């Protein structure tokens, strides 16, 4: 099997792991408060990554010049993003949550044009318009219960997670880095614990966690090891060998996998409006990803 074929197989595996992680996280929240679940899974991920890097001789101490990269990816992209999507899952179905969380490129493109001088090609314009239609259909403001604070809060948290992710994408794109991100992965996961632990202690100072439930332990280990350590390692490995366009387009399958996995495993209803909005959003993301300029 060629190297490219191997990377494509790993890419499919990554899509499946992250797609299945959405109903897995949602299920775990029946046994553990959201903020504590995201904290515990990150602690486990950090321990496993430190052990793996230490055993293979790749563990390095960060230098002062590495701090911006650690804070940007660790605190915001991993830590804050994880906290927001987990809290959002408390109120919103996992499939819908996956779609909202992957809206980041739609925030990145207009900001990059307005503030960083990027050009807006016809392909990107088409992508943004398609995405806008998909977002409107997804939220269906004419059907939304504006008096239900839980629905508003959940969707707001998930939208905020996409905005946070987009901010990190812009930072990593335009900042000057002195070291490759993957070499600092253990420290990024360590820093990611901070916002989650703070939120957990403040929101639920005396958590009740059902450690005796086998399903919870499975969901926790899946989220921490497979959807955490393994998935990030796969992302790093894949992006080194496959073209960025190929990878970005393939990752559009994650919210699709999340939506259908949620329908299969937690009984989420796939309404026509959700499926149509998903089609518009994916078409829009595809246009943005392949567009030149």
Rg over CA atoms: 19 Å
Structural class: mainly alpha
Tally of DSSP helical segments: 12
Strand segment count: 0
End-to-end Cα distance: 35 Å
Mean pLDDT: 86
Task: Explain what the structure shows.
With 293 residues, the protein is mainly alpha-helical. It has helices at residues 3-28, 34-55, 67-89, 94-101, 104-116, 122-139, 149-174, 185-203, 214-241, 244-251, 253-265, 272-290. Helix 1 (3-28) crosses helix 4, helix 2 (34-55) packs across helix 9 and helix 4 packs antiparallel against helix 11. The two termini are 35 Å apart.
Secondary structure elements and their pairing?
Layout lengths: L2 H26 L5 H22 L11 H23 L4 H8 L2 H13 L5 H18 L9 H26 L10 H19 L10 H28 L2 H8 L1 H13 L6 H19 L3
Helix pairs in contact: 1-4, 1-9, 1-11, 2-3, 2-8, 2-9, 3-7, 3-8, 4-11, 5-7, 6-12
Summarize the structure.
Helix content is 76%, strand content 0%.
Keywords:
0% strand; 293 residues; mainly alpha; single chain
